[in-house]
Write a structure and sequence with these properties.
Elements lengths: L2 H4 L3 H33 L14 E5 L2 E10 L6 E9 L5 E7 L12 E8 L3 E5 L11 E2 L1 E3 L9 E8 L3 E10 L4 H4 L6
Parallel strand pairs: 2-10, 6-7
Antiparallel strand pairs: 1-2, 2-3, 3-6, 3-8, 4-5, 4-9, 9-10
């Protein structure tokens, strides 16, 4: 047997090495993709978790989500403003009624003071900003409580009633103007 025919020349090994290298790179890439994809199986994707990103609290009633609710007031018993948003994911508009507990009432008393109704359009959001929108812009509403039920740093009972989904009472934080972001939003006498 001729040794010349049984051996491959260095030139003919290049394609074989190249194929092996490509296969190794592909296998490494596939293994990395599988390992990295496994991270989401054990660690949930944070953007899929609904949470209160600020100082307020949220509640859902049917198709309506009241989010980031907080009351800004200088002191218990003084005027306060409710901040947050009402979002309706349903196909029909809804009416949301917001009520407040009275100062000195316990946490068990149903909020009934200063009822304010807010019309929330289908698949729309109304912001509770402490200022009124214009005739053309009904996406901002001013919801106020004449006497804030709790001192800043505490929580106040706020009633949320959706005409199509019932009602609930939620404990909402009361904040003052200590934080610069809220200082300009405090009600002024």
């Amino acid at each position: 047997m001729n040794s010349h025919h049984s051996r491959r020349s260095p030139r003919s090994l290049r394609p074989l090495r190249s194929r092996r290298a490509r296969a190794a790179v592909a296998a490494t890439g596939l293994a990395a993709a599988l390992v990295l994809a496994g991270c989401s199986a054990t660690n949930p994707i944070q953007t899929q978790d609904q949470y209160d990103a600020s100082d307020g609290v949220s509640v859902r009633l049917g198709d309506v989500r009241a989010s980031n609710l907080m009351i800004l007031s200088a002191a218990e018993g003084e005027e306060g403003v409710l901040l947050g948003a009402l979002t309706n994911t349903g196909a029909d508009g809804v009416t949301v009624t917001v009520t407040f507990g009275a100062p000195g009432e316990g946490g068990d008393a149903a909020p009934a003071a200063d009822a304010t109704t807010v019309d929330v359009p289908a698949r729309g959001t109304v912001l509770l900003t402490g200022s009124l929108g214009s005739d053309e812009d009904d996406t901002k509403v001013d919801v106020r409580v004449s006497q804030t039920p709790a001192a800043p740093g505490g929580v106040a009972l706020v009633g949320i009633d959706v005409d199509t989904a019932g009602s609930t009472a939620v404990q909402v934080p009361v904040l003052d103007g200590t934080l610069p972001d809220y200082a300009t939003l405090l009600p002024t006498p």
